[in-house]
Amino acid sequence: MKRLLLILSVVIMVSGCANKQMLKEQIAEAIRENPQIVLDAMRENSLDLLEIVEHGFDKRAKLKRKAMLEEEIKNPFQPRIWSERPMLGNPDAQVTIVEYSDFLCPYCSKGAVVVTKLAREHPEKYRLIFKHLPMHKKSRQLAVVFEAIAQFDKEKAYMFHDLAFSRQKKLYEDKSGIELVKILKEIKVDPAKLQKIINSEKLNEYLLADEQEANKFKIDATPTFLINGVAVRGYLPADKFDQMVEMILEKTKEQLPVETPEGEICEDCLNQM
To answer: What is residue 71's three-state secondary structure?
Structure first.
């Protein structure tokens, strides 16, 4: 039967339109009567079939990312910029990066290095706003510490930011809190002063607002960056991130079709440490 179907398929390719339609119907009827033929063929070519399916998924995902990016370039997100919260770079910079991050996400750590370097080395071009999307209780605690330090010293808040990301594995594994104490001591934060602020309702308001905003923008993975309101989902190396910025700036002016690099997003952060 399989040989017959093969012959029929070849005949279809060389036949006229009427014959092709008739033979297609005959093949369809043969498959309906003998569905095992298809199952046997799928088993015999399972790896090829899997490759075809994966290629289809990848292509559909790429088209979806491209469509989302084009829509966001036309209608960029409008995140809230809090004047009282810490920021790197120039408030009047050409490029505003809003970063939704998790202190215990490995890709967030890599992404933070890229965007903080841009803001520190090119403050005339970039301003960076750090927001929180903590996926775990412990990373939420670190987010509160960051915001608490920023209440009295924004520079030290970013010092904490850098050290927390560089030592995230130790912070996660430390059950006693010693590593956090070491970091606070290293950046010369007064524990008593911090303790007075740490339970402030204002800090919870900041975190809740960040999470609600991310949800509103359908941001559900870390890291995610808004570049002038256009979302870049996942970590990109410095060169690709810079290319993405330039592309967004160009396409925002010209409204041309876009190509989207795929970033690395943390879906199960703690198991990747």
So the answer is: helix
